[in-house]
Structures are given as C-alpha cells and as structure tokens.
Amino acid sequence: MPADIISFGEPLFEFSQVNADSSQGPDYLSGYGGDASNFACCVARQGAKITMLTHLGADVFGDKFISLWDREGVATDLVARNSDAPTGIYYISHDENGHHFTFSRKGSAASRITPDHMPAKEIAAAKLFHTSAITCAISSSACDAVFKGIEIAKKAGTQVSFDTNLRLKLWSLPRARAIIHEIAREVDFIMPSVDEAEVLTGLSDPDAICDFYLSLGAKVVVLKLGPGGAMYATSEMRERIAGNPVEAIDATGAGDCFSGAFFSEVVRGEPLTKCLRYANAAAALSVRGYGAVGPLPYRKQVQAFLGEQVPA
User: Fold this and answer.
1) Is the separation of the CB atoms in 259 and 279 below 8 Å?
2) Distance between alpha carbon 106 and the CA centroid of its chain, in Å?
3) What's the confidence (pLDDT) of residue 95?
4) Residues 6+ apart with CB under 8 A from 205
5) Which one, of 81, 64, 71, 57, lies nearest residue 30 by Cα?
6) Less Cβ around it within 10 Å: N or C end of the chain?
7) Which pLDDT tens digit goes with each residue over 136-169?
8) Which residues, at least 6 apart from 109, have a Cβ–Cβ distance to it below 8 Å?
9) What does DSSP assign to residue 59?
10) Which pLDDT belongs to residue 227?
11) Predicted pLDDT of residue 96
C-alpha cells in the first residue's frame, strides 16, 4: 500500500546529556534522532502511513533504528544498509544557554546517497514527499538526491514539503542560502523557523518572511515561531496562532514534531488552520521530556490537549 508520506533524510543515533556530573550517575542517555526520523516517528504516532527513505550502516546503531521504526509503525521498505559506511551519531549537551549539538556523521551511509537511489515509483505513489536542508547539507550527492526527489514528485503530482532546518556546522551560509532559496521555488510547503529565516533572509518580521518565501514560489509558508506559536501564509490568506504555555524540559526535536504533526493533518485533508493548531499543540507536548522520540505525543494525547473529542 502506498505511503501517505515519504520522509527522506539521515537518522542519527543520539546521546543526550542528562547529568553534568558523571559521579552522580550516567551522564548521557542513548536514544534516536535525526530530523527525518523524528518527523517519521511523529507522523506514525498521529496515525498516518509513513515510509523512511534513507541508508543506514550495517552496524548496531542501524539495527537499533530498524527496531525503532518497526515499533513505531514506520515502514522501512526504502531503507538500505551499507556495510562500508556507518550510521551517524550525535551528542547533545546542555548549559545555561540551551542545548548544543556535536556530530559524528562524516562519511555516513546516508551521506553517500545519490540521485540514482531515489525510488521514482514510490515517490510518485505517495501523497507527500518530505525532506529538509539538513539532508542537502550532509553531502553534495545527498543534495542532488533531494533535487531529484523533488523533480520526481512534481512530475507525479506528489506534494513536496521542505524544512529549512539550518545547521551551519554542516555547510556555509552562502551555500545554504542559495540551495534553500532555490528549493523554495519548487515546493508546495516550506517550513522555516523564525530564527533560521532571519539568518537566511535578513528579515525578522514574520509577515515579511512569509512574503519573501511566497515571492520565491513556495505555495504555502509555515513559519515556526517557537514559544510565540506559529503561522501559515499563502498568496490568498494567512493566520497566526499563539503558543501553548508548558513547562519545557528539552526542546530537542520539537520542530520535527511540529512538522510531522502538521503534515499528518495535511494528508488527512484537513484545512491549514486546523493543521496549524494541531501541530502547535503537538510541539508543546513534545518538550515535556528528554530526547527527540520518547516525548513525541500520540494522536489521542494531542486531541485531549486541544479539548477535542477523542474516539474510544
């Protein structure tokens, strides 16, 4: 059965700091990360059909991801294993200035993906093809594969969503800006956060940011405003909603949760306003625990948070 959504990108095995003093107990907790995988797990928890498109190392961390996706209900038909390259890893540390990332992903299996690896039949059969700027940044061949996936999707009438997740440790700002702006011309949905968009565009006003991406050619701009909520804009209308006040423990993966929740509603055919409110609530719930995947809410939890009637 075709996927509702295909998520293309690199999973990263996660080590998240939970104790700065190792004499008081374990200092790092292992888990799962990578924006494409976080997104996929969130989509699955909302009940949509999601398939991961990626390459993993033939190693223990790759095995763990396969087990994770099997548990979460994420299809792995489009996951390949590479015996010559590892699964990527990252580390999260915390201090008074927030959370910080250290990556060990150079030469990873996912970074060796090429346009020839893009599955045209499956992308064409999906409702939505989702990827991000991180996938473009991990290697030139992966970046070319993103463009190939978008080309396949557009020819088939599959919608395309693109998250501008900006990681300047992976590439230079001029290259990031050029590639992200070029992709914005091709996609149905572009999803920046306001802080990333300010770096990429030089603009700080949310409406001006939306206007900028619409002028490039994106059909819908979904702008994440952090604690300030979120907004969407099209050429005909726009709406902004406030954030949901919660006690935040760890914001890792909150943006991926927002994206996954939003597009799970899009493929259900819900109006954009409802998609936005749903995603905003899901992201708020996701910051109440440690790690990227564990705190992702399930559909019934989001509905309850919104005060909606939850099916028995």
Assistant:
1) yes
2) 20
3) 79
4) none
5) 64
6) C
7) 999 999 999 999 999 999 999 999 999 999 999 8
8) 55, 56, 57, 62, 80, 81, 82, 85, 86, 87, 88
9) S
10) 81
11) 78
Torsion of CA 152, 50, 164, 220, to 10 degrees: 70
Could you identify the residue written with the tokens 């088939």?
Answer: 156
Are the CB atoms for 27 and 21 separated by under 8 Å? yes
* Closest of 211, 230, 232 to residue 221, by C-alpha: 232
pTM: 0.92
**Using CA atoms, how far apart are residues 294 and 182, in angstroms rounded to an integer?**
34
Can you read off the two tokens belonging to residue 94? Answer: 């915390």
Given a cut of 70, the residues of the chain with pLDDT beneath it are: 20-23, 25-26, 246-253, 287-292, 308-312
Q: Report the distance separating Cα 116 and Cα 138, nearest Å.
A: 17
d(CA 166, CA 176): 8
**10 and 56 Cβ atoms separated by less than 8 Å:** no
**Tokens 């406030």, residue located:** 242
- CA 91, CA 252: separation in Å to the nearest integer? 11
The dihedral built from the CA positions of residue 245, 247, 251 and 257, taken in this order, carries a sign that is: negative
Neighbours of 306 (CB within 10 A): 15
Lookup: tokens for 131: 């990827």
- The two structure tokens encoding residue 84: 């010559």
CA atoms within 13 A on the CB side of 144: 10
